[in-house]
Amino acid sequence: MKLLFKQRFFSWFDSYDVYNEYGERAFTIKGQLAWGHCLKIFDARGEEVATVKERILTFLPEFELYIGEKKVGCISKELAFFRQKFSIDFNGWTVDGDWTGWDYTIYNDAGRKIAQVSKELLNWTDTYVIDIENSQDALCALMLVIAIDAEKCSSHN
């Protein structure tokens, strides 16, 4: 399953549209007014399914992941030189990628690839292609991509 994660060009808050490989909208992400990033994820029917919320007053960026109202995990940036590195407490997953943080792979605790993420260059807005091995992992993989993208936004402000 492939998802195209595309930031909206005109938006007061972070807003994204996520399309499947057939060009159909699979998810919509809407930023909320909050201290730090608070991104709500809506399915194709417009129902809220998940939230990625930045914890404030932390030394390095940290994001909590919620499905519905239940906290299901956390991702935080680690101090590293020449590459992006994250500590992930979510499904036993890890992220391994290049030094830019634009292209990376998500693995489970057994080393099986969950998703491959790559940033498309030469676009007006942030655009990522997420190639997911199992469609059941789509929402969770999307949550990690959102958190990593929000961390990059936080570190550049």
Question: Topology, pairings included?
Answer:
Layout: E1 2-7, E2 15-20, E3 25-31, E4 38-43, E5 48-55, E6 62-67, E7 70-77, E8 86-89, E9 94-97, E10 104-107, E11 113-119, E12 127-132, H1 138-156
Antiparallel strand pairs: 1-2, 1-12, 2-3, 3-4, 4-5, 5-6, 6-7, 7-8, 9-10, 10-11, 11-12
How confident overall, as mean pLDDT?
86
Task: Figure out the total of helices.
Answer: 1
Q: Which residues sit in consecutive blocks of at least 5 with pLDDT less than 50?
A: none
What is the molecular shape? globular
Distance between the termini: 33 Å
- Over the alpha carbons, how many angstroms does the gyration radius reach? 14 Å
Major sheet: size, sense and barrel closure?
A: 12 strands, antiparallel
**Strand proportion:** over 45%
Q: What order do the strands of the largest sheet run in, or round the barrel if closed?
A: 8-7-6-5-4-3-2-1-12-11-10-9
Q: What is the β-strand count?
A: 12
Which descriptors apply to this entry?
mainly beta; 1 helix; 157 residues
Can you offer a commentary on this structure?
- The protein is mostly beta strands and 157 residues long.
- Helices cover 12% and strands 46% of the residues.
- It is built from one helix and twelve strands; from the N terminus they run ββββββββββββα.
- It has one helix at 138-156; strands spanning 2-7, 15-20, 25-31, 38-43, 48-55, 62-67, 70-77, 86-89, 94-97, 104-107, 113-119, 127-132.
- The protein has a twelve-stranded antiparallel beta sheet, with helices on one face.
- A hairpin with a 7-residue loop joins strand 1 and strand 2 (15-20).
- It is globular, with a radius of gyration of 14 Å.
- The N and C termini lie far apart (33 Å).
